[in-house]
Structures are given as structure tokens and as C-alpha cells.
């Protein structure tokens, strides 16, 4: 398969899963809130596609992040069935799907930011790149917490499932910490692979 075929496959499967998730979700209010970032992201990618092609790694990571958002929209982050089973089977304190979502909130944007910075020669030096990418991911995570706060204030108890705090008073801090961990892990694990894909993209 050519890169274009892979891109179409990612887009097609995204649309199919999105359509499935819209069928009898736990709450259409929560569904709209959770899947909105994924839909906006795909619209942006499709709009810039004729002029800007990203690495396959970035496209696949965005697809995975979108999947996490869509599943969270369908079941809510506090009631994702697989993580309910893990909670009950291992006697965990809560459904940890929300934590996974916030790890992805750092893990995926880190590689996206890295690609933007490297391709546009915005940051020089590997150490500074690592630091600034991490800061960008923390800023995204903090801004998302603002959005959750604004939704909670405007909609009252209807936003409980969106917040998915599950009674944890430190949930906001945990969310940002998990995004930080995701951003650091992503760069440590994927930087070399990402670098090779960038080099290949430049050569084409």
C-alpha cells in the first residue's frame, strides 16, 4: 500500500468508528464534548492535506488518540466497560480510562509539536526541543482543564460525566501529571523513529 492508501484507510476507519459511537451513546451531550476535538483535528488534517503531508507516525498517533476520545464519548471516561472490568477484577479505586486519555493528551501532541518545530526549524538543539515540546503539552493539558471547568460552570451537574473526577479531589492535578508523563515518554520512546520518518519525508 502506498502512503496515500494508508491515509485513506486511517480516515475511513475513523469515520466508521465515529459513526458507530454516535449510535446510542450514554449521553449525546458528553459524546459531543468528547469527540469534538477529534472531528476538528481530522477536518484540519484533510484541509491541509493537499499542501502538507505529515509523517505516518503522526497520522497513526492521531488516529489512536481519536479512538480514545471516541470511545470515551460513547461510554464516558468513567464507565468504559473494559476499564470497569479491570477495576472490578483487580480491586482498583476507579475506572482508569480517564488516566489513559490524559496520557494520550501528552503522548500524541508531543510528536505533533516535535514535527512542527523540526520541519519549520523553530527550535535548535535537542535539549531545548525536548523541553519546549514538553511545555507545549503541559499548556495543552492545562487549557483542556480550563475547558472542563467552563463546561462544568455553564452546565452544572450535567458535566459530571465529562469531568470524570470519580470523587478524586486531585483529579485535575493527576490529569496534568499524566499528560506530562505521556509527553516525556513519547519523546523518549519515539524520537529516533520520528527522526527517521522525517528524513524519509524530506527525501521524497
Task: Characterize the structure shown.
This protein is an all-alpha fold and 204 residues long. The chain has one domain (28-41, 51-199). It has helices at 3-21, 28-48, 56-75, 81-90, 97-119, 126-155, 160-163, 171-203. Helix 2 (28-48) packs antiparallel against helix 3, helix 5 runs parallel beside helix 8 (171-203) and helix 6 packs across helix 8 (171-203). The two termini are 16 Å apart. The mean pLDDT is 91.
**β-sheet strand percentage:** under 5%
Distance between the termini: 16 Å
Quick one: biggest sheet? none
Kindly state the number of beta strands. 0
CA-based shape: globular
* Number of structural units classed as domains: 1
SSE string: HHHHHHHH
H/I helix tally:
8
Helix content: over 70%
Features:
mainly alpha, 78% helix, 8 helices, 204 residues
Please specify the SSE layout and strand pairing.
Layout: H1 3-21, H2 28-48, H3 56-75, H4 81-90, H5 97-119, H6 126-155, H7 160-163, H8 171-203
Helix pairs in contact: 1-3, 2-3, 3-5, 5-6, 5-8, 6-8
Short synopsis of the structure:
The chain has helices at residues 3-21, 28-48, 56-75, 81-90, 97-119, 126-155, 160-163, 171-203. It has one domain (28-41, 51-199).
